[in-house]
Every structure is written in structure tokens, then in C-alpha cells.
Design goal:
With about 675 residues, this protein is mainly α. About 50% of the residues lie in helices and about 5% in strands. The structure holds zinc ion (ZN).
Amino acid sequence: MKRVASFLFAALVAAVVYPAAGDLPAVDSSVRPGDAFYQYVNGAWLKSTEIPADRASISDGVTLSELAGQRTRDLIEETARDQNATADARKIADFFNAFMDEAAIEKLGLAPLEPQLREIAALKDRKALSRLLGGQLRADVDALNNTQFYTDKIFGLWVAQDFDAPGSYAPYLLQGGLGMPDRDYYLDDSAATAAIRAKYTPHLAKMLSLANIKDADAKAARIFELEKRMAMAHASRVDSVDVQKANNHWSRKDFDSKAPGLDWQEYFAAAGLTGQDHFIIWQPGAVTGISALVASEPLETWKEYLTLRAIEHVAGYLPKAFVDERFEFYGKTLSGAPKQRDRWKRGISVTNVALGDAVGKLYVARYFPPAEKARAEAMVRNLIAAFSLRIDRLEWMAPETKARAKAKLAVLKIGVGYPDSWIDYSSLEIRSGDALGNALRAEKFETRRNLAKLGKPVDRSEWVMTPQTVNAVNLPVMNAMNFPAAILQPPYFDPKRPVVMDYGSMGAVIGHEISHSFDDQGALFDSSGKLNNWWTPQDFAHFKEASQKLVKQYDLYKPFPDLALNGQLVLSENIADLAGLAVSYDAWKLSLGGKPAPVVGGFSGDQQFFMSFAQSWRQKVRDPALRQQVMTDGHSPDQYRALTVRNLDAWYQAFGVKAGEQLYLAPEQRVRIW
Ligand SMILES: [Zn+2]
């Protein structure tokens, strides 16, 4: 759930490390497992692996994403040559090829953006401003599944099941409008954040200058001030991931009284939401604060801001000078990558955003054999059975809470590989030679597709990730999960090696996603998806207390001298990691059917299990990207996720970890939740 959703796989691929069935990593014997387990397992890899110049990090997930990208490119190129390609396949090829045609893009210059810029320049009053802002509303956020909280529009739209009535959809509004990733980038005092901020306003000025806009420096300064005021109204990331603070139901007329400033009638009419009387407001303070700024800030400043945002939003589809300047700030400064990704790789990324299901259909037909789907489904069943047994065995949980947990487990809808039905792109127009227009139409298409759900019955089979995504996700209100095809492959899932390795990596991922239905936020949604705490007060108190121990455990990790992890921000993910690892360990044991696990390379089955887990989290990441993750991401950096093992007794036995070693936790300090 929540950030849950995405168990942010940072990284890469280990192809190297599994040369033959059962191959384990070359361990770093200069450290003891009990002092530095992550280094022990991954030391050799960390020494020999470089972060590619065009990447902020490298990991098995990144490497697999690169592979999926290369495969997608092959599919697109075949399609472009195929006279009998389907209409969807043709759209993919046209979209990609238009993006790749840099000569045409140079020649067009800013022309494709001119209608938008003229519309902004012509704004005469607040009413027109409100209408324009409403017309910009897009279905571009997802607070619980993909935990995508960022939008460059003043608000983002998420259409999902109503927290209080999960049988129907509701429109959720989320805060937005910033150019940097989070309010902290505007408000935080640390030297590192101030250094980023110092480069931001010059970047804005440069973008304006490239578009031949005069007085760029003064305008950039005013734009920054407006964004800073929005940032001051924004909820923090920790507050934003707290669903209990998000369940604010507003009727249409509440907007006029609770958030004066914006002309809401104009706003909603332009957004396609006339007649909608019921909304859920994720961060009410931000909606009130930003709406007030529409009235209080000079119209000219809003026009300057909207002009900049319009250019920045599509900079990737504009001539090279815009692309490069955008990369200077968002690539180099914010993530630390020295080199921009090749254009074709960016082309694959944007094609996946615009036409993800159409690409996915081709992808799974070629790369996801039915036998692997069946094998993954069997593993999911084993994990669910092991989870059910763990519920039975919990000593601290009351019988009625156990019954509700099992009811929830019974309704989980687990999607493996790809969805049962695909998005219909027939109403999305893709033109060859119109890269920017295609992108904007695709965003509108996605927004219309989401608005059309309002008033219809909820479709629990819908996916929120494409099959070619290297990731996995829990959809808490749907009580559903997606395990895309692209993660169900080596090195996470490999038919050619001992099964223990799969349980240590993919099994723990599956367990992680299942347990999101039972973590601190999963505890708040019942088996129908309603926001309804289903625990007895005593059980919930116990759960909270155990959770707090995990918060403290992660608060102590410091990736930088001036920046520690925020244990509360990463709590749900850490609970899911912990439960996922424990349940996968049980599921693996069950799969042995009482037989001993084979020893490989001198390592016991238990050792292989934990080594596979730690190996699946190996990652190298650039400092600015790591800093951004610590500030804004609900997931702990991968090296700390590997340390989940500290809470499992079996790990201590497997490696003989003793008191006095750095990672040792006394039995009563180990967190046991599920
Ligand atoms: Zn997660």
C-alpha cells in the first residue's frame, strides 16, 4: 500500500552473479556477516560494479529495466517494419518514432507549444486563470498504489475507490504545483538543500531565456517565490502518507467556503468535473493555501509561472537546448547522473507512459512464457499459505482479529504477469511527426479514461503497473496485487537454480506485497477495502508498539553525517520487508516438504536464503539521488532493506551471529510483527 506499492527496486542486475544454477555471490570474507552482512554478501559486487554515467544508481532492478527497454525497442522496430501490425502496435511505433525524430523537433522549435503559451498570455482575470488551471488537471498522481505524490499542476487527480464506500470510485485531489520534488527542497535549511535551491532559480531563468522570454531573471525569482508559498501550504511527506489524515470528504460547495480564491465553478467545469458533488481531499491545508494564492498573488506572476511550467512540462519533447537544460537541473543536480540517458531509452520510457498496456501486450507474448506464469502463481499460493499459518501461530493476536486477517487474506486478488484485460487505446490519436502533441493527447486520454470510471462499478482486475515494469505493487483499497512479468525473471526468479534462491529474492518480494495488506496502513483497510480499522484496540496497541521499535531501528541508520533515515516515513515498507522475509522463509521451508535443503558451495540452505535476500538489494547510488530518496521516498535505501535480517532468529543461527557484533540485536530487541 502506500508507498507500498512500489517496492522501489532500485536496481539492477546481477546477471553476472548467477552464472550457473545455484551460484552464490563471491562473499567478502574480510568482514563478518554479523558486523556487515550487506558487505559480506555484496562486497565483491560493490567493488567491481560502476554506476553507468547515465544512471543515478545501479542494481539488479536497474539492469533488468535496461533489458526490458532493449526488448521493447526490438519489438517497436519489428512493428515499424510489419505491414500487418495491429492498430495499437502502429501507435507505439508512431509515438516512438516521432520522439526519435530530432531533426523534425529542432525544425518545429517552440511552435507546437505556441497555442498554450498564447492562451496563458491572453489571461485577463482570475476567472480565466481558474478555467485554465482546471483545464490542466490530469490523472497524474496515485497516493496509495504507486505512491506517486508529485504533480507539476496545482492539484493532481487520482480516481480510486472511495475510502468510505469502496464499491464506488471517488475523485481524490492531491497537492501540487512545485517544480522541485517536495516542499523540503524549498523550506529545509541544510547546506545540501540550499545548494540545490541555489541552482534552481538560475535553471528557471535559463529555460525562459531559451524560449526568448525577456526579463528572465526577475521572472524566475518571482516564480520561485510563488512556488515557495505553495510549498509552505503543502503537507509534509510524512503527513501525506498518513491515510487517516487524507480521508477528507468535501462536497462541491465546501470548496467555496473552505478554500476561497480559485473560482471553483470555472475550475471544475474546465476539468470535466461539473456535476461531481463528492471529492476526497488528500491534503486540505494545501488546497486551501494554494487556492488562496490564486487570489492573492498578482495575475502577472501566475502567467509567468504557468509559462515556465508549460515549457518545463514538455521540455523533453522540445529542441535539444531545452532537453539539455532540463537535464542539467533534474538529472545532474537532483540525481547526480553526469550523463543523460540515450535518446532511444528516453523514448522507450515515454512510450511506456503513453501506451504502456499496448507495449505490455507485445512484451508478454514474447517474453513471459505460460510456464513461468504458472510457476509464479504457485509460489504466490505457497506464500499465502505460509502467511495464513503465521496468523494462526501469532500468540499476541485476539481470535477475532485473526479471523478478520484471514478474511482479508482470502479476498486478495493477485495478478501475475499481466492483466486479464487491456486498456483500449482506440480513442487516442497518435500522429507521426507530432511528438509533443502525442504526449499531451496521451495525458488527456489517461485523464478521460480515469474520469470515465466515476459512477461505474469498481473493477478489481485493473492493474496499476505495466507488465514490462520491474517492480511489484499492492493496491490496498482494492485488496489486490500486481506482479509484473518483467520482475518475474532472473536474477529474481530463475527456473535454473535452487529454489531457495528464488524464495530469498522473489519470494520475499511477493511476501512484501502481501504483507502490505497487513502493515500499519493495511491494518486500516478491512477486507472490503473500507478505511476501517479491523483490529481490537489491544491488538492494534501491540502492533503500534512493535512498529515503534522498527521506527527506532531505522532512525539510527545514517547515510550521511547530516541526514538519517526517517523511521516513520519508511515504516510501512520496513514492516512489509520484515513480514515478507519471514513469510518467504516459512514458505520455502514448507516447499521442502520435510527434506533437508541441499548445501551449495559450503553454504547451508538457510545461509543461501539470507544471502539471496541481501544480494537482491545490492545497489550503488549517487549521493544526490540517495539524499532525494531519504527525503521523499517511503522506501529505505536498499542497503538498509538488506538489514531486515537482523530481526529474524534464523539469520543469527545461520551465520552464528553473536552479541558484540555490530548488527547483533538481543532477542527482545528484534521486531516481530507477523
Ligand atoms: Zn512496498
